[in-house]
Amino acid sequence: MRFILIDKVLSLEPGNAIVTAKSLSLAEEYLADHFPTFPVLPGVLLLEGLVESASWLVRLASDFAHSMVLLKQAGNVKYKSFLAPGSRIEYTVTAKTLEADASSFSGYGQADGERIVEARFALRHFNLADRDPAMARVDKNVIESMRQRWRLLSND
Amino acid sequence: MRWIWIDKFVAFDSGKCASAIKNVTLAEEHLHDHFPGFPMMPETLMIEAMAQTAGILVGQAMDFKEKVILAKIRKAVFHDFVRPGDTIRLDAQIESITQEAAGTTGRITRDGQPIAEVDLMFSHIDQNLAGKTFPKENFVFTGMFESLVRDIIAGGAPAESEHR
C-alpha cells in the first residue's frame, strides 16, 4: 500500500488546529488481512491519520523548516468504535504546544457523528543534517516532496 | 501491503511473555512514502508490531478462543527511528488478563539499543461492546497467523534463538 493516511484537508487554523478527512475503501489491500470477514481501518492507522494531520500544522508553522516530523510519544489513545469501508472519518487535531523542535496535540476522529478514536501525542522535528551535515541534500529532497504532498492534500 | 508486522517469534512463554522480530526492508512499499528519499519504518506500524506480538500472546493464553482487539494505546514512547536493513526485536509481557480484557507492556530494541516502549490494552470483544454484531468465527486469528503460531501451538515455547 501507499502510506498516506489522510485524503484531504477540510479546514486549517494555522498554528492551532486542522481538520482532515480519510475515506476508507475496500480497494485498500491491507483490509483483506484486517480482517478477512470484518474489514476495518486498523487502530494504529487511525493514530497515523491524527499524526499526519498534526505534522502539517508543524510543517506549515515553520514554513517546512524540518524534513523529519516524527511521533515522539502517544498516550491514552482510545478506540471507541470501528471504521468500515464506505465510510469517511474526519480528524480534528488541536495544538497544545508548538515549538521549533517539539510539539504536542490532542485529537479525535469522528464518522457519521460517532466518535471513533481519541488521542494525545507529541511530535519531534529535526533535520538529518543536524547530526550529519552531509545529509543536507536529503533534507532538501524530503522537504520538497512534502511541499508537493501538501499541495495535493490542500488543493493549493 | 499485507497487514502482518512481525516475522517470527524467538521466545514464547505461554500466558507470560513473548519475543518476536521484524526485519525492515526496502522491499516494503510503504517505506517509500515515509519519507520519500529517506525511508524509515513508521512509528505507528511499530506500535502495530507490538500489538501483534502482545495480541498473539494474549490470544494464545485464551487458546485463541477470544477475538482480541486493540482497545487502547496506554503509552508509546520512541527514542530512535528504524531504517531498512534493521531488525527490531519486540518483547511483550502480560501485565493483567481477565475474561474481558488484557493489559500488556512492551519494549522494542535494535541490537539491544532502546527504540520504544509500548504499553497496550486489549479487549475480548465478544465479552464487551454489547449491541455490536461481529462475525461468529474468530476473524482475528486467521490462517495468516498460522505460520507464526504453529510452533507455539505444536511444541510449546520455542527455544530462544539467534536471528541474524
Question: What this model shows, in words?
Answer:
The complex is a heterodimer of chains A (156) and B (164). By secondary structure, chain A is α+β, with helices and mostly antiparallel strands. Chain A contains two helices and six strands, in the order ββαββββα. Chain A has one domain (8-153): Roll (Thiol Ester Dehydrase, Chain A). Chain B has one domain (8-151): Hotdog Thioesterase (Thiol Ester Dehydrase, Chain A, Roll). In chain B, strands 1-2-4-5-6-3 form a six-stranded antiparallel β-sheet, with helices on one face. The relative contact order of chain B is 0.23. At the A-B interface, helix 1, strand 3 and helix 2 of A face helix 1 and strand 3 of B. Strand 3 (68-79) of chain A pairs antiparallel with strand 3 (68-78) of chain B, so a sheet runs across the interface.
Please describe the structure with a list of short key phrases separated by commas or semicolons.
heterodimer; A: 156 residues; alpha+beta; Thiol Ester Dehydrase, Chain A; 2 helices; 24% helix; globular; B: 164 residues; 6-stranded antiparallel sheet
